[in-house]
Structure formats: C-alpha cells, structure tokens
Amino acid sequence: MKNLLTTESKSYLNNLSDLISSYGRCLIAFSGGVDSTFLGFIANKVLGKNSLMITAKSPSLDNEELKNSLHLAKNWKWNHRIIDTKEFSNPNYTKNNLDRCFFCKEELFKVLSDIAIQEGFNFVLDGSNLDDLNDFRPGMKASSKYGVKSPLVEVGLTKEMIRTISKHFDIPTWDKPSQPCLSSRIPYGTTITPKILEEVSRSEKFLKSLGYKVVRVRHHGSIARIEVPEKDFEKLLDNQSRDLIVKELKKIGFKFITFDLLGFRTGSLNNHV
Q: How many angstroms separate the first and last alpha carbons of the chain?
C-alpha cells in the first residue's frame, strides 16, 4: 500500500481515532457513501464489534446504493444491520418543502437513537464532514436534536482529506461520486412519490450503464433534465447515444428528454435557496 498520508493527515487520523475511542459503543449511520464508509472503516478499526453500522432502507435510497452498502459491510465483516425508515408516512417530508431533508434525518436519527437506548450504545454517529457546514443542509438540525455526534466535523476533516486518507487505506469509495438521496432530483414544492423516485432511479441506472459515471436526472413532471459533466457533452449528443437515451427514458415515462447545457452541478435544485 502506497503511503499517501502527510504529517498533517496522520494527525487528523490520530485525533479521529482517539475521539471515536472515547465514545465507547457506537451506532454509525452508514449509507455507503464516501464519508460514512470512511467513518465506518475507522470506527471498526478502533471499536471492532462495539460498533454497529446501520443502513436505512426507503424509496429514496437507490437500490444499487443499498447493494453496495451490503457488499462493503459483508466484505469487511462489519457488524451491520438494515432498517426500514418511514419518512414517506410524514406529509412534511413528501410535500417537499425546503426543509424536506430535516424530516428525513429526523426519522432516521429517531430510529437510531431508539436502537441505541434499547441496545446499550452510547452514541449515534454520522458522516458529516467540515465542508457540509458551508452547504444547505437542513438535515443537520435533526442531528443536533437527537444528540448525534459528527466526529469528522469535530476533528476538522474535509471531503478532500477524507478521499485522500480513504485512498491510502484502499477504501473503494475514495473516488466515488457524491450520491445524495433520490429525492434531491425533485424540485422543491413537487410532491414526492415512490413512482417518481423509481423513474429517476431507472433513468440514472440506464445512463450509468452507458458509461456516464456522474449523472443526474432531474424530474420535472413529464420532463427529464439530464445533467452530466462538460467532458461528457460530446458523448451525450452523439446521435446513437442520444437516440438510445430518448427511447429508454420515454419508455420509463417521460414525454420530453432535455439536456442541461450548464452541465452537472451538485445540488443544482438548491440554487434559489
């Protein structure tokens, strides 16, 4: 394994390990993304079976993400559990106002906190990093409400640092593109339904099968708005590729297939927030 750790990153890593060790038995909210996978990896090194990874299953979680989480946990022999969350039973979530994310995280952290109390875990941890403090993240208010610890924030780790340290440890998610929940593809004010999320999931899965590693399909009713990085513009506009995409997305249920000339932007639906 090539050593990619600088003196600074070693210091951050030591601080993180010491902090997690001080927590004792912990639950970790594990989505399979870059941050929660890194946190789970370190927590397991420090706490072993005194850590429990929990993945929340709901219509807003892409099925491929669930499979990847299962694979990682099984491969590393983690103490891992899948639970069902019920945010779709809360109209404050499905009506999709600007605070939607709060109600999703509130449901998750309430369930995790209940499990922690029932099974004798000291804390619930999440994978928020320092960069998240500068983003529009209403869900972070829910972590405060339930006393959830964010050790990556506490020690000052950014996304770039997490990726570098993850690469050092050969954690396969080190270069994984961000993959927020499927509900983030729906414009605020549009009611979220499992059917809409299924259409988004199927569309993005198809586009990824064509080789687009980073892609978003924003759902605007009968219109699909495709975002890819600028480097993929030419490929997307190739006649053969374009015809395949139009045919498949119309089959899924869209009437109009559009291509966003601004390209891929993380959280593009937050631009007006």
A: 43
